[in-house]
Specification:
The chain is built from 2 helices and 15 strands. It has 231 residues and is mainly beta. It has a 15-stranded mixed beta sheet. Strand 1 and strand 2 form a beta hairpin. The relative contact order is 0.18. The N terminus is likely disordered.
Amino acid sequence: MKTLVMVAALTVAGAATPKLEGNRLQAGSTCYAIIAGDKTIGSTLQTVTASRAGGKPVWDIVVHQKLDSGAFDMRDHFVVDRETLLPIKMDSQRGREQTDKGWHRISIEYGAHGIRGERETATGSVPLNVALTGPTWDGNLWGLTFAALPLKEGGTYAISFWQYDKGFGTFTARVVGSEDVDTPSGKVAAWIVEAGDNPAQLARYRIAKATRQELGYAAGPSGQRLGGVCQ
C-alpha cells in the first residue's frame, strides 16, 4: 500500500519531488484567530522551539486550537527533524473530559521503517503499528510543512504523509501567485499556496516569503488569520 502511495505522490500532474527544508522556518509563538464567515470563533496558538533530540537538532512544535464555545479543544505536539521536517514524535490531546465529543489521546513515534504508538478514545485503546518504505511526513502538521517547501512561482509539490485517522495520503501544494498581506506589523510579501490532502478541496495559505511564517489560510467560509487572542 505504501509503495502505491509513493508512486501516486510522484505522478501528481506537474508535481516536483519536494525537498523540505526545516531550516527555512523560524522559532517563535504566533496567535491566530479562527474565523467562520465574518466572525471570530476561536484561536490557534502555534509555538515553534529549537531543541535537540537523540543528539540532533529538532523543532519542537505545539499547535493548540480552541473554540470560544468550548466545543473543541485540541493540542497537537510534534518533534520533527530540523533539517528535513521528518517526524520523530507526535502526541495529540483532544477534549478535557473523556465524555467530550471526539475525545482522544494519541502517542506516536516515527522510525526509519515504521510507526509505533497508541490511540485512546472513549471506547478504549488500540495500538498503532505501521510499516514505512520511504520518507513520510505527519499528516496533522499543515502550514509549517508547506512553508518548508522550496516555494517559487508556479511550483507544484506532492508530499507523502501518514495520519492517525486517514492513514497514508498525499499533500498537494501549488504556488498560485504572490501578494502583499496586511498584518498587525505591516505589509508582508507572501506566496499564495493552495494546499491540502484533497486536490479538489485545497485551502489557500499565505506564507511570508522572507520568514516563511504562515500568515493565515482560507478554506471556503472558514480559516484563520494573524491576531487572535490566545491564552
